[in-house]
Amino acid sequence: MVDIAKIASFCKRRGIVFPSSEIYGGLAGFYDYGPIGIEMINNIKAEWWKEIVHKNQNIVGINGAIITHPKVWEASGHTEEFIDFVVECEKCKSKFRADHLLEDAGIKVGELDASKLNELIKKNKIVCPKCKGKLGEVKEFNLMFKTKVGPGEGETTYLRPETAQLIYLNFKNIVETSRQKVPFGIAQIGKAFRNEISPRNFLFRMREFEQMEMQFFVRKEDADKFFEEWKEKRLEWYSKIGINKKNLRIREHEKGELAHYAKRAVDIEYKFDFGWKEIEGIHNRGDWDLSRHEQFSGKDLKFFDEETKSKFIPWIIETSAGLDRIFLAILVDAYHEEEVKGEKRVVLKISPKIAAYKVAVFPLVNKDGLPEKAREVFKLVSGCYPTFYDEKGSIGRRYRRMDEIGTPFCVTIDHQTLEDNTVTVRDRDTMEQKRVKIDDLLSELYKSLNLYS
Ligand code: ATP
Fold this sequence. Notes:
- By secondary structure, the chain is an alpha+beta fold.
- The chain has three domains: 257 residues, 2-Layer Sandwich (BirA Bifunctional Protein, domain 2), CATH 3.30.930.10; 60 residues, Herpes Virus-1 (2-Layer Sandwich); 93 residues, Anticodon-binding domain (Rossmann fold, 3-Layer(aba) Sandwich), CATH 3.40.50.
- It is built from 15 helices and 23 strands.
- Strands 3-9-10-16-13-12-11 form a seven-stranded mixed beta sheet, with helices on both faces.
- It starts with a helix and ends with a helix.
- The protein binds adenosine-5'-triphosphate (ATP).
């Protein structure tokens, strides 16, 4: 399994992801997606949206604000509960997450308070992993980023630490305007911000990241059924976007591990080189969220059932996926190094659905009328698929460059093309080439890319 540091430097070299504010030394936990990365990210979002919103008549989307009324976070419990435990080295002043230090030492922690974590650190004689110095007292640390709204002192509020709350806030708007009836869902993709104590493992733990969340509103008695249903559907989706099943698993949360709002929770985990780690959480949140917002806002958030003429607060089944973690899992899963004719070949065997470019078009050589013909073919193909065009350098090197970013097919225009209007189509994974008539090229690509399954 490829290690994460190697993937990070590969991403930088190939214009996939860059450390943010790099010319100023970078800012821990923040990354920028480059020209290849942003295409892939957009493709993952589009696949998720298609699966969740477009294929389901009873799920609709929203795009909520990043900054909200501060009371939202009181109601959600984040102001009080969204804390991690930080411990500082007395010698080098580095800060660590107390539970991570214990877990790295093989000690299972679960939900413990600061004083219990402190005892465990002392009892197990855990020292600073950087300089072996003595660790100070464990302290609580709220992960929300504070900001001020309005001129002067302004009003203090927070950047949203999750997208879910915006969905609950719009529950009533959606019921009133979209004719949806329980059971139904609301989906959203957007940025979330958490001031993580120790961002690490490249895109895995960031301070600014993106979530793809869907909240499904159900009757209490149907909650278990829908929980199971969404658990299966979500796991299946990862195979549809090309992640190897053997690197995925579902892990049920133990009682002590459950978040304050959760009745039941499972994680979909991916097997990274640093262990099995969560990429998506599926939660039965009970009626916690809407009840709390009803209580804090004083507004009636009950659903009125026309058939039974009864009013109730729906229960919520949540599927909460991290876009950047999924992107990372896709890269790790697809990264291959192989030897071809004595030379190393790096190839990203990603699903064509996720690949930045579906096709590349090359003239074999940059003369003899081939570039002109190749540009005609590029015009034809790029009208249907994101297509890369390159006429410079050796053809072998141009193929390798496309292999590295996972372009599934390379179409080459050679001297024979000028005689019989055929091109070669090279398959990224097998490296086999076949001749195809230009008239048949689009239908051949349509079949081979299989983008719409
Ligand atoms: P963790 O325990 O790893 O901190 P979490 O249980 O707090 O994660 P959730 O609150 O359930 O995570 O968030 C839903 C999803 O958002 C996660 O499954 C993950 O994919 C993503 N996510 C959460 N925190 C981060 C982060 N700091 N960086 C990148 N993605 C994140």
